[in-house]
Structures are given as C-alpha cells and as structure tokens.
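Hi R.,

As promised on Friday, here is the backbone we talked about, encoded as structure tokens. Could you run it through your design pipeline when you get a chance and send me back a sequence?
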C-alpha cells in the first residue's frame, strides 16, 4: 500500500485513541502507540518513521536486529515476541523495551547480562492471563509467588510493568476482562500486602507503571482498562 494510506490509518488510530482516552478520563499523553512492523515492508516502516513514529515493535529478535541496522538510531525498538536466552546479548544494546519476559529464568539471564554489560534494560513481564496453552507468559499466581524475590534480584534490569495478549475474538469487549485482570494483578503486586512494606522493593520503586495491552482488534477496551502501551500492526497497514 502507499505511504499515504499509512498516514490516513495513523490519523484514524490516533483519533480512536483520543476518543478512548476521553471516555476514560485519561490524558492522551498517557498512552503510547507502538507500531508493530513484523508484517510490514521496510518501505512501510520508513514511511512510518517519516510520519514521526518512533516506537516500533518487532516480534522476532532477528528481524528487530536487521531493521535496527537499517533505520535511524532514534527509533525506540520494542521486542514483543518470545526471546531465547542465547539471543539476548545482541538484542540488549538496540532494544528500548522488552515486553515479552516470560519466565524468571529469562529475567535472571537478562539481569546477569545487564550487570556484565553495565546496561539498564527496561523490561515488562508477559502474563498469560487467559491461560492459553499456545501462549507464552507467566501464570498470574506463579508470578505473584516469585515476584518479590525477582524484584530483590533485579539490580540492573528495570522492571517497568506487565504485558498481555487477549485471546483472539471478533468482539473487542471479549478482551476487556483480560485487560482488567492484568491491571488488577499489577495493583495487587505493588500493594502493601504483596511487597510495599519490603524496604528493598520500596527502594527500587517497582510500581510497575506500564501496562502493555491492546492490539488492532481490542485496543479501545485496553485503553479504558489502563493500557499505557498499545501494540498495533494490522490497523496501520491494512488498506481500507
Ligand atoms: C503481532 C502482534 C501485535 C499486533 O497485532 P495486530 O493485531 O496486527 O495489531 C501485538 N502484540 C503482539 C505480541 C504481536 O505479536
């Protein structure tokens, strides 16, 4: 499709984001659009960049690395797909935020790497709220059990929030309970009962401010339930 089509799509999405923010009494600046470019051509990605979009998301580490080499350095790259520990070393220097940390083992590996390379990567923990067998992510109770220890162990990695994907459904409203559950899990993790009275955790200020949730089919309910990062691919590149 022509880059002009992308500009129109972007306008439409921004209007819908603004409307969802207005409905939920949130400032538009509290929601960041991550343009998911996994199915886009390099030309389309460049068009997005020229339109001022700086947050780009890729689900495959290899493609993220290749594209980061082809685009200007001021792109903020978001990894939104599964990361194998052996790919992490190359990824850290170019990635602004890893949304898809789906196990404590991966988190520990990133912490070791961050210490070794004196970096402070921003990460989100991916939660499999709906318990789908085919999806990666923490089981919510598993995360609640291990969370305090993880916060204590992360001295370089910055744990900034949670991410989830809702099961595919025709009706966007079907995703709302999943998004609400992610927000409630976050609120529970950072509540006094779970960790707020722990001095180390307090010191690290792990309030998990970011909620990465909502895609083309369901970003409006996600915003209404508190999303701070929405990940949109299809609606940017689809014609018509
Ligand atoms: C592909 C993908 C998206 C974007 O999905 P669209 O429906 O194309 O907007 C968002 N998040 C993740 C994790 C993805 O893999």
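Update: got your reply. Pasting your designed sequence below so it's all in one thread:
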């Amino acid at each position: 499709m022509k880059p002009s089509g992308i500009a129109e799509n972007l306008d439409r999405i921004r209007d819908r984001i603004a409307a969802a923010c207005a409905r939920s009494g949130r400032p538009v600046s509290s929601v960041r659009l991550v343009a998911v470019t996994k199915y886009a051509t390099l030309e389309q990605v460049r068009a997005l960049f020229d339109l001022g979009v700086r947050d780009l998301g890729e689900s495959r580490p290899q493609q993220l690395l290749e594209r980061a080499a082809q685009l200007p350095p001021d792109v903020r790259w978001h990894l939104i797909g599964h990361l194998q520990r052996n790919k992490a070393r190359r990824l850290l220097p170019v990635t602004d935020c890893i949304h898809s940390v789906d196990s404590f083992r991966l988190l520990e590996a990133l912490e070791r790497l961050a210490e070794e390379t004196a970096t402070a990567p921003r990460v989100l923990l991916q939660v499999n709220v709906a318990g789908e067998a085919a999806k990666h992510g923490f089981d919510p109770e598993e995360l609640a059990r291990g969370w305090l220890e993880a916060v204590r162990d992360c001295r370089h990695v910055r744990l900034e929030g949670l991410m989830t994907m809702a099961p595919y459904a025709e009706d966007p409203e079907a995703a709302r309970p999943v998004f609400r559950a992610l927000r409630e899990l976050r609120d529970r993790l950072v509540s006094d009962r779970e960790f707020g009275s722990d001095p180390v955790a307090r010191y690290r200020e792990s309030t998990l401010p970011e909620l990465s949730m909502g895609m083309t089919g369901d970003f409006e309910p996600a915003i209404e339930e508190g999303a701070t990062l929405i990940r949109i691919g299809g609606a940017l590149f689809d014609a018509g």
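One thing I noticed while checking it: The CA atoms of residues 186 and 208 lie 7 Å apart.

Thanks again,
M.
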